[in-house]
Amino acid sequence: MMEMLPFFVVIPLGASFLAALLGRKIRNASDYTANLAALALLFFSLNSLGLVSAYKTIVYRLGGWMPGIGISLVLDGLSSFMLVTVNLISFLVTVYSISYMRRYTDKWKFHALFMLMLAGMNGMILSGDIFNLYVFLEMASISGYVLVAFGTEAQDLEASFKYAIMGALASIFILLGIALLYSYTSTLNMADISFALADRPRSIVVSFVCVLFLAGFGLKAALVPFHAWLADAHSCAPTPVSAMLSGVLIKVLGVYALMRIFFNVLGVSNSILGILMFLGAVSMLVGVLLAVAQWDFKRLLAYHSISQIGYVVLGIGLGTPLGILGGLFHLFNHSIFKSLLFLNSGAVEYSLGTRDLKEMGGLREKMPVTANTSLIASVSISGIPPFNGFWSKIIIIFACIQANHFGYALCAVAASILTLVSFMKVQKYAFMGKISEKWQKIKEVPLAMQLSMIILALICVAGGLMLIPPCRPFLQSAADALSAGNGYKEAVFAALR
Q1: 128, 159, 198, 322, 363 from 265: Cα distances, Å
Q2: CA-to-CA distance for 412 and 434, rounded, in angstroms?
Q3: Which among 401, 410, 392 has a CA at the least distance from the CA of 464?
Q4: Are 388 and 471 in contact (CB under 8 A)?
Q5: β-strands 58-61, 72-75 pairing
Q6: What is the pLDDT of residue 274?
Q7: How far is it, in rounded angstroms, from Cα 53 to Cα 407?
Q8: How many structural domains does the chain have?
Q9: pTM for this model (two decimals)
Q10: Which of 459, 465, 483 is CA-nearest to residue 91?
Q11: Which residues are CB-contacts of 46 (< 8 A; sequence separation ≥ 6)?
Q12: What does the pLDDT average to over 450-461?
């Protein structure tokens, strides 16, 4: 059964190669290749939930070499949870791209880069080796830099350049941290590193590595004050890329790496948890305040990405079982409703050719699917019951109260109220009221784009069901993997036996 794990990297790499090889010769070949690959990855991701339920932890040894000497892929509750999240969004975005990317030339280049980015994210999630985690991170990052500039307009190139510079700075911090950690422990395998650090007192080297990782992965996650690149990159990229960047990329490259390394490898301390909570709360408030003032639809959504990632990091930073559960639940929910909102903004831009909310109005009359799915996503992100965002936010707020962090609970409530204000503006200016004369001839977007939006909206409506006992293992196994902390190393070596 562990033979399945390499396919999470092999399939998207193969699809990237085929999209580039066939796409320039055969019309729509890259569409079929990317969608079939994304569907296969979603199937394998869902299958991984059953494997985790049965075996808890599975380790695949590349070439048969033991970890510490060879490279290993590790599947546990957290990695399975992340794989489902990433590949679900990826599949729906590739379906959406069938129609949307016809606006661009050389669609095959988009699919080749998209699959390469997906291979990097899947590889990061499964990597049991910290250097290969970095290699896959760079694969996903570089693909992201190029995809942001895919439109080749001046503002696209500027946004890509800014993203690349900030991303390169983050990579330097991460690589330096890995080098110092290797010099201190003499191993790159994450379970081995955890073993080596367990036998030693906390040293200044490890503390400095923690600072480097916080800065590096904080930049990748766009936490305040490391957020300067995000608004330009997310607003200038083609809409499918924006949905991927906000929906999953910043979570895998930033939040997942922070969780895995600090909780399961280095061992999380009260000071680290305090920093994470503080960064999460600041990101929540700063992101939503920046969003409220925006009139560019996609830029408004980009700033909300910063705010909602703050909720995730606050929940994880609490370090309590309830906080971790709420943080992971919000990570999944944010992937759903924020991807949907970006797809909605892309649908509006596809039909109108503008992202300025002041130029819209009354679009519900001509674009009912886009309007209704946007309303569902808006109330979800604002934390209105019974939609999915409400359940994860209320868990995080209760977890703050349970841990006696009443100030952080108040910040979470305030940010949610401001989020509602922001999206009331979106609904009022984009979809409500009387439609302008110049938009009388517009029509709803093509079926493939509608289908992706409808599926994501249905998940927003039904998302709360993940808390009921039959569905709860999806979240609980991921939360247990983080709560186990340094128990990660015992789980990995027990799986090898």
Answers
A1: 10, 34, 9, 21, 50
A2: 35
A3: 392
A4: no
A5: antiparallel
A6: 93
A7: 37
A8: 1
A9: 0.93
A10: 459
A11: 84
A12: 95
Residue 330 has pLDDT above 70, yes or no: yes
Crossing angle of the two packed helices 7-23 and 107-126, in degrees rounded to 10 = 170
What secondary structure, in 3-state letters, does the chain show? CHHHCCHHHHHHHHHHHHHHHHHCCCCCHHHHHHHHHHHHHHHHHHHHHHHHHHHCCEEEEHHHCCECCECEEEECHHHHHHHHHHHHHHHHHHHHHHHHHHHCCCHHHHHHHHHHHHHHHHHHHHECEHHHHHHHHHHHHHHHHHHHCCCCCHHHHHHHHHHHHHHHHHHHHHHHHHHHHHHHHCCCEHHHHHHHHHCCCCCHHHHHHHHHHHHHHHHHHCCCCCCCCHHHHHHHCCHHHHHHHHHHHHHHHHHHHHHHHHHHHHCCCHHHHHHHHHHHHHHHHHHHHHHHCCCEHHHHHHHHHHHHHHHHHHHHHHCCHHHHHHHHHHHHHHHHHHHHHHHHHHHHHHHHCCCEHHHCCCHHHCCHHHHHHHHHHHHHHCCCCCCHHHHHHHHHHHHHHHCCCHHHHHHHHHHHHHHHHHHHHHHHHHHCCCCCHHHCCCCCCCHHHHHHHHHHHHHHHHHHHHHCCCCCHHHHHHHHHHHCCCHHHHHHHHHHC
Distance CA 16, CA 21 (A): 9
- One-letter amino acid at 100 equals Y
CA neighbor of 322 nearest in space, from 388, 404, 240? 404
Residue 74's beta-bridge partner residues?
Answer: 59
**Dihedral (Cα; 258, 337, 147, 142), 10-degree rounding:** 10
Peptide bond into 225 cis (omega under 30): yes
CA 385, CA 380: separation in Å to the nearest integer? 8
Bond prior to 473 in cis (omega within 30° of 0): no
Give me 313's structure tokens: 């990091």
Structure-block tokens of residue 242: 């924006």
d(CA 365, CA 431): 8
Rounded to whole angstroms, how far apart are CA atoms 45 and 5? 10
Q: CA–CA separation, 263 vs 118, rounded Å?
A: 24
- The gap from C-alpha 56 to its chain's centroid, in whole angstroms, comes to 23
**pLDDT above 70 for 271:** yes
Task: Answer whether 324's CB lies under 8 Å from 482's CB.
Answer: yes
pLDDT digits (tens, 9 = 90+) for 230-247: 888 888 889 999 999 988
pLDDT for the residue 495: 77
- 369's CB contacts (< 8 A; 6+ apart) are 444, 445, 450, 453, 454
Residue-range definition of the domain harbouring residue 34: 2-496
Q: Which amino acid is at 411?
A: C
pLDDT digits (tens, 9 = 90+) for 377-423: 999 999 998 899 999 999 999 999 999 999 999 999 999 999 999 99
Which residues lie closer than 8 Å to 21 by C-beta, 6 or more apart?
Answer: none
Other Cβ atoms less than 10 A from the Cβ of 40: the count is 17
